[in-house]
Amino acid sequence: MAATSQSLLSPAPPSLPRARLALSAHRAVALRRRPAFPAVAAASTSMASSESEEKKESKLWGGRFEEGVTDAVERFTESISYDWQLYKYDIMGSKAHASMLAAQGLITTGDRDIILEGLDQIEKQIQDGKFEWRKDREDVHMNIEAALIERVGEPAKKLHTARSRNDQIVTDLRLWCRDAIDKILIRIKQFQVSLVLLASKYVDLIVPGYTHLQRAQPVLLPHLLLSYVEQLERDAGRLIDCRERVNFCPLGACALAGTGLPIDRFKTAKDLNFTAPMKNSIDAVSDRDFVLEFLAANSIAAVHLSRIGEEWVLWASEEFGFLTPSDSVSTGSSIMPQKKNPDPMELVRGKSARVIGDLMTVLVLCKGLPQAYNRDLQEDKEPLFDSVKAILGMLEVCSEFAQNISFNSKRIQSSLPAGYLDATTLADYLVKKGVPFRTSHEIVGRCVALCVSKNCQLTELEMNDLKAVHPVFERDVYAYLGVENAVNKFISYGSTGSEQVKKQLEDWRVQLGINP
C-alpha cells in the first residue's frame, strides 16, 4: 500500500528483521505471537534494526559517548515505529528552517538549495515506499537527517543549526494536529449533512421523547435528529478553538533556552502558516496542553457519538422496532441465522472508551513533569494518533449508518398512545385557564391515575370524568389531547412544534450548504 504525503494516519512500518540471536523456545514462541506492524508503504519499504547491523552506526548525538547503548535500551527508547507518520511535517519544518538559515546568512543559498533538493528526494522515496526506516536512528528526525547527510554530504550537517529535536518534534506535532483537526471537521460536517437529509425524509413523524428512558413527551423525529446536529456543531467549535491555540510555532526555541544565533523565528512561523512564534522558549518545548485540549475535544465528540450509537442500537431492537438498518450497515451471527446486528453503532459506542482513555493517558503522562522537555513526552504520540484514527472512523461510519437506515413509521405511531405523552400539554391547558402550575400538575396527575384505573388514555376520558377531577375543564380541552395536538401546541423558540422544527431544519440546510 503506497503512503502519500496527505496521509495523517497510515499503517505502521513492516515488522522488523528477526535478530540473529539464539532464542529460547519459549521466547521464540512469544515473538512469533507478537503482532507484526502492517506495511507502511510499498513492500520495498523496510525498517532495519541495529541488532542486524554488522557494525552499529554512530549516533548523531554521540560525540561525548565512549560506547553505544545496549540493544535493549535501543529497542525501548526508539519511537520510529510510530513517529515515522510525522515525516511530511518534519520535512516541511526542515525546509522552512533551512530557508530561514539562508536568509539570515547562517548557511549559503547553495547549501540551502542542496538541502531542499535532498529533502524533496527523501520525501518522494518515503512516498514511494523505498525509504529504509532504521531503529538505530531512533526517531523520524534522526532518520531523515542521517539519510540527508548520506545523500548530500556536508551541507546537510548544517541543517540542525539553531534547532533541537525538542522544538523540532513539537513543531511537527502542531503541524500534524492542525491537519488532523481539519480532517475531523470535514467528517463532522459530513455527518451533520447526513442527519439533516435523514430528518428531511421524516418531517412530520412524531416519536416518543424520553427522560430517564421513560416516555415523557411527544417530539418530532427531525427535532431529535437535529439535537445531534447541534451537539456536533459544538464539537466542531471546540476543535476550531483548539486549532487556534495549536497554530503557534515553537521552532527556534531549541532545547529550551533559545539560541545566541541570529535566527528569524517570525519567518519560519510565517512560512509554515503559523499565526506567530511562541513567546517563551521554555513553554514552547515543554507543554503538551494543545495535545490535551485536542484529545479532550475528541473525547467529548466521542461521547456524543456514543450516545447516538446507544440510542440507535436500542431503537433497532425488537423491543423498540423504531429503526431498521439496511444490510449494508449490519452484520450477522456466526451461530444464529436470524440475527441482524447494528454492529457499527455498537463499535462507535465501544470505541468512545479508547478515545477517552487516550486523553487519560496523556493527562497522567503530563501531570508530574518539571519544566522543560522530558523524554516522557515521547509517549504522547501513540494516544494522539489513536484518538484521531478512532474519531475519524467513528464519524465516517456514523454518516454511513445515517444514510442507510429507515424509521418504521407504523411501529412508531402504534406505540405513541402508551405513556400519557400529552400529560404536560394538558397541564399547560390548565395554566391557560388561570390555574397555578403546581395545582395543574396535581390535577393532571389525578387524571393520569384515573386513566390507569380505567385502563384508557387521556383522550378517552369523558367530560364528566374530567369535571369530576376538576370543574375548570371545558370541551376545548380535547384540542390539547393526543400526541398530534400536543406537538402542535409547542410554540417556544427551539421547541418541537412543527413550525419551529421546520425553521430549524431550514436554518441547518442553509448553514451546511444543502441544496433544496
Q: Mind explaining what this structure looks like?
A:
By secondary structure, this protein is mainly alpha-helical. The chain is built from 19 helices and eight strands. It has helices spanning 25-33, 71-77, 80-83, 87-103, 109-127, 140-152, 165-200, 221-246, 265-271, 281-286, 289-315, 343-366, 381-402, 409-415, 423-432, 437-454, 463-469, 483-488, 498-511; strands at 46-48, 132-134, 206-211, 214-220, 248-249, 276-277, 323-325, 405-407. Strands 1-2 form a two-stranded parallel sheet. The chain has a two-stranded antiparallel sheet with strand order 3-4. Strands 5-6 form a two-stranded parallel sheet. A hairpin with a 2-residue loop joins strand 3 and strand 4. Helix 4 runs antiparallel to helix 5, helix 4 (87-103) packs across helix 9 and helix 11 (289-315) packs parallel to helix 13. Residues 1-7, 11-45 and 50-54 have low confidence and may be disordered.
Tell me the layout of helices and strands:
Layout: H1 25-33, E1 46-48, H2 71-77, H3 80-83, H4 87-103, H5 109-127, E2 132-134, H6 140-152, H7 165-200, E3 206-211, E4 214-220, H8 221-246, E5 248-249, H9 265-271, E6 276-277, H10 281-286, H11 289-315, E7 323-325, H12 343-366, H13 381-402, E8 405-407, H14 409-415, H15 423-432, H16 437-454, H17 463-469, H18 483-488, H19 498-511
Parallel strand pairs: 1-2, 5-6
Antiparallel strand pairs: 3-4, 7-8
Helix pairs in contact: 4-5, 4-7, 4-9, 5-6, 7-8, 7-13, 8-11, 11-12, 11-13, 12-13, 15-16
